[in-house]
From TrEMBL:
SMART domains noted in UniProt: HDc (SM00471), HTH_LUXR (SM00421)
Residue ranges of every copy of the HTH luxR-type domain listed in the record: 422-487
SUPFAM superfamilies: C-terminal effector domain of the bipartite response regulators, HD-domain/PDEase-like
Top-rank lineage group of the source organism: Bacteria
InterPro entries: Cyclic_di-GMP/3'3'-cGAMP_PDE (IPR052020), HD/PDEase_dom (IPR003607), HD_GYP_dom (IPR037522), Sig_transdc_resp-reg_C-effctor (IPR016032), Tscrpt_reg_LuxR_C (IPR000792), WH-like_DNA-bd_sf (IPR036388)
Protein name stated in the entry: HD domain-containing protein
Pfam families: GerE (PF00196), HD_5 (PF13487)
GO molecular function: DNA binding
Length: 494
């Protein structure tokens, strides 16, 4: 987001202190904790669309805290940033489209952000008391937010606390207590709940004490309302699946990629006779192997050709995956295995250039599964290969000493071509609607879907109306999540 590291942790600490200062009820205080941690993760789900509208999403997000963005000021902010990095003519065209449609494209992106964060909270079993506030991330006390349907006391108490804590943290970071107090005073009754602002102003020293110096990771963990609760094995798997799907939303080209890698890795493990423990390790590492992708700006992933610097930026993602997971007790082996998926036996991989002796069998299995699924997936730099072409490429990499030959042979031996026909299609979709859903999940526009399926644009529009109605969704992001969760994209044939 173009902000200092751990800023959301500091925001969460401020939110909890603010809740205490304002006498917020225990239930709403707990909701504020999880709402604060998840409010901005939606940025990972909408960055591809944001990049298409504004260029580098990091620069855009970094600029959002400076102004009181509501109503006309929000419109002016958007117009100033539309088409970032594009030609003057292209920017003018985008501005015209924004004005002509009353900003629907930008509102849709913001809605996707909220829906994705709310969906993640639901899949992590955090309840409606967290999922609902996340839908109000861009609303305001004065009702001039996005989508502008709720304001004042209609806003959940948790999101009111987070709105103030978010901006207070940003201004405290750049200007200290004086700046934090001033912005709260200036936006009292417009962006922020006046009662919360008054509570903050009365106890600002207490709320901000040591924020720049405390070990926020430890502080925030200690404040967790559910600290000590243990996930079952099944709950942990569901959580990791949710993280996998969320990471794959970074760009439409990746939809379902992580689930596909996990499915192939599990097949390979079965063929090689890995123990139950190692098979579980392989599946979990495969699910989260690409979490680091969300730490690389979308314009990098969407480039048809990488510059040297862009390639190096992309190659940091396995390292970021390991850093994201390394501080989670019990997932150390998963983090290490996941981070090795681009290493190669001959030392030609990245990010560390490790060789055969440093790569245990579970890491080799994940590497082969990822290599194969990547060959089946299209991206801006490489067209998708059919299974036979992908198998040939995989064998070539094994012969060259890059990939483990036994793991490659195990994958290819398990690679059935005939998918079992579903007795009941999830969501009650027809076969044609499933085809449209798959192309939609992969990021194709209506005209592109029509061309791919050899049907008219009107037919595609009709199918999409039926799909959205049957699934009870309203955005491409929600449809893509449904497609991933039900194996329409990414997963190999049964």
């Amino acid at each position: 987001m173009g902000r200092p590291m751990e800023r959301v942790l500091r925001q969460t600490l401020i939110a909890l202190r603010l809740a205490d200062a304002a006498g917020v009820e225990a239930e709403n205080r707990a909701a504020a904790y999880y709402t604060s941690l998840l409010t901005w993760v939606g940025c990972a789900a909408d960055t591809s669309e944001v990049a298409a509208l504004f260029g580098d999403e990091t620069a855009l997000y970094a600029d959002t805290h400076d102004g009181d963005l509501g109503g006309m000021t929000m419109a002016l902010f958007v117009l100033r940033h539309l088409g970032g990095g594009s030609s003057r003519l292209h920017r003018l065209g985008m501005m015209g489209g924004f004005l002509a449609t009353a900003g629907r494209s930008v509102q849709r992106v913001m809605q996707n952000h909220c829906l994705a964060a709310s969906d993640l909270a639901g899949r992590l079993d955090l309840g409606d008391e967290v999922s609902r506030p996340l839908l109000q991330a861009f609303e305001r006390w004065d009702g001039r937010g996005v989508p502008g349907r709720e304001g004042a006391l209609d806003l959940a108490p948790a999101i009111r606390v987070v709105h103030l804590a978010d901006v207070v943290e940003a201004f405290f970071d750049t200007g200290g207590k004086a700046a934090a107090v001033q912005v709260a005073q200036e936006r009292r009754g417009t962006q922020f709940d006046p009662a919360l602002v008054d509570a903050f102003l009365a106890r600002a020293d207490e709320v901000l004490a040591g924020i720049g110096d405390v070990q926020v990771w430890d502080e925030v963990i200690a404040l967790d309302p559910r600290l000590g609760a243990t996930l079952t094995e099944a709950e942990l798997d569901r959580a990791l699946e949710a993280f996998a799907d969320f990471a794959d939303l970074k760009t439409p080209y990746r939809t379902g990629h992580s689930r596909g890698v996990a499915a192939w890795a599990t097949r390979i493990a079965g063929r090689l006779g890995l123990s139950d423990a190692d098979t579980t390790l392989v599946r979990r590492a495969a699910l989260v192997h690409d979490l680091g992708v969300i730490g690389v700006p979308s314009p990098v992933w969407n480039q048809p050709r990488w510059s040297v610097s862009e390639r190096e930026r992309a190659r940091t993602h396995p390292y970021l995956t390991e850093r994201m997971l390394s501080r989670v007790p019990g997932l150390e082996a998963v983090a290490r295995t996941a981070s090795l998926h681009h290493e190669r036996l001959d030392g030609s991989g990245y990010p560390h250039g490790l060789g055969r002796d440093a790569l245990p069998l579970p890491a080799r299995v994940v590497a082969v599964a990822d290599a194969y699924q990547s060959l089946l997936d299209a991206d801006p730099r490489e067209p998708a290969l059919d299974p036979d072409q992908a198998a040939l490429r995989l064998r070539e990499q094994a012969r060259a000493g890059e990939l483990d030959a036994d793991a490659v042979n195990a994958l290819l031996a398990s690679n059935g071509r005939r998918a079992r026909k579903r007795e009941v299609t999830p969501g009650g979709l027809t076969d044609r609607e499933v085809e449209v859903l798959i192309e939609l999940a992969r990021g194709l526009s209506n005209p592109q879907i029509a061309a791919a399926l050899s049907v008219s644009r009107k037919t595609v529009s009709t199918h999409l109306e039926h799909i959205y109605a049957k699934l009870g969704v309203s955005t491409r992001t929600q449809a893509a999540l449904f497609a991933m969760q039900h194996g329409f994209v990414g997963a190999p044939p049964d």
